[in-house]
Amino acid sequence: MGRIILIGATKGGVGKTVSTYNLAYSLANLGKKVLAVDFDSQANLTTCFGVEDTAALSTTIGHLMMLQLDDGELPDMNEYIMSRNGVDFISSSMVLSAVDAKLRMEMGAERMLANILEPLRDRYDYLIVDTCPALGALTNNALTAADGVVITVNPQLLAMKGLQDFLKTIKKIKKRINPKLEVVGILLTMCDKRTNLCKVISEQMAEAFEGRIRIFESRIPSTVKVGESIYYCEPLLEYAPQTKVSRAYLDFGKELMGYEG
C-alpha cells in the first residue's frame, strides 16, 4: 500500500515545489510508482509538469475537492490523473482557492483530500503532496491525509520563523484526527555551504531537533540549474543528471525510502 508524503513549508521560496517535483522523479528513477499531487492553488507543480494553461483544465484537485464537499461522485481516475515521463500527477488550478474558502465554513471537512487519495494507495508506492506555504484549511486537509511530512527549510533566518507553529499544527492533527501522522524529517534546501549563515543555521537546527526530528543528510545546493530545469519543464535527473543538485535529490529519495522502509 502506498505511502502519502506531504511536502510542507512555513514560507514560500524555500524550494518546496521544486523538491516535490524532483523527489517524485528520483523515486521513479529508483523503481517506485509515484503520484504527485499539486495541492496548491498557485499550481506551480502543475506548471513544472508542462501544463501551461491551468485554467483550461477541466478536472483538477480543486474540482475533485468541490465534488467531495457537495457529496458528488468522483469521475473515473483516468479523467484527472495525468502523466509525464514516467510520473503520474494530479493537477491544480485557482479552483482550489474557492475550495479553501468553502472548507472554512464546513464542519468535519478535514478528510476531503483523504477520501480522494485513499482509493489510489494500491496503485502507487508513493503519493507525494505539494502544499501551499501557509497554515489553514487546505494544509489541515493534507495533514489529515498524510502518513508523513517532509518539511523544506531554506537555511536563512526568515525561513526558520514559523517552523515551530507548523510543528504544533502537525502535533494537533496527529492527536485529534490522524494518529498515524509523523514528521519524516527536515530537508535543507538552497544551501550555499560557502556562507557562514548556512553553516550556523544548519548547526542550530541539528542541535535544536537532535533526537526528536531527523535532519536529512542530503542538502540541496543552490544553483541556477534548478531554475533552468523548471523553465524547460524537465526534472534535474533529465536536464542536468551529472550535477550536484541532481545527485542530492537522488540521495534524498534513497534516504526517504530507507526511512520509510
Shape: globular
Which bin fits the share of residues in helices?
Answer: 40-55%
Number-wise, the strands total 7
- How many H/I helical runs? 12
Query: In terms of structural class, how would the helical and strand content be classed?
Result: alpha/beta
Give the low-pLDDT segments: none
Q: Proportion of β residues?
A: 5-15%
Order of helices and strands, N to C? EHEHHEEHHEHEHHEHHHH
Within the largest sheet, what's the order of strands? Answer: 3-4-2-5-1-6-7
Q: Whole-number average pLDDT?
A: 90
Q: What is the makeup of the main sheet? A: 7 strands, mixed
Gyration radius over CA? 17 Å
CA(first)-CA(last) distance: 12 Å
Identify the notable features of this structure and list them briefly.
261 residues, 7-stranded mixed β-sheet, alpha/beta
How would you summarize the topology of this molecule?
Blueprint: E1 3-8, H1 16-29, E2 34-39, H2 44-48, H3 61-69, E3 81-84, E4 87-90, H4 95-103, H5 112-117, E5 126-131, H6 137-145, E6 148-153, H7 157-160, H8 163-176, E7 182-188, H9 196-209, H10 224-231, H11 236-239, H12 244-260
Parallel strand pairs: 1-5, 1-6, 2-4, 2-5, 6-7
Antiparallel strand pairs: 3-4
Helix pairs in contact: 1-12, 3-4
